[in-house]
Amino acid sequence: MVRAGKVLGPKLISLKDHAQAKEMECDVLRLEIVKEKEFCEEEELSYEGLRLEIAKMKIVIMDLRERSEARKEAHNVKLQYVNELTTSLAE
Description:
Structural class: mainly alpha
């Protein structure tokens, strides 16, 4: 029995070392998962911020289009009036 203990002793130590190494690997992987999760959360916040900025820009673009269209219509009315005046003066 003593002899068996001597033979198993180094194997047990080796298995314990192996188990400790695996546990350390798991700890490292857990830390990496936490970091990845934090990174993903930051990216999600950044993504949401960009979505809000895009929505704001779309509103500004719509407003600018409306204003541009209104100015274009006002310009066309004035141009028509100028054309009518020019035509009446030519007669």
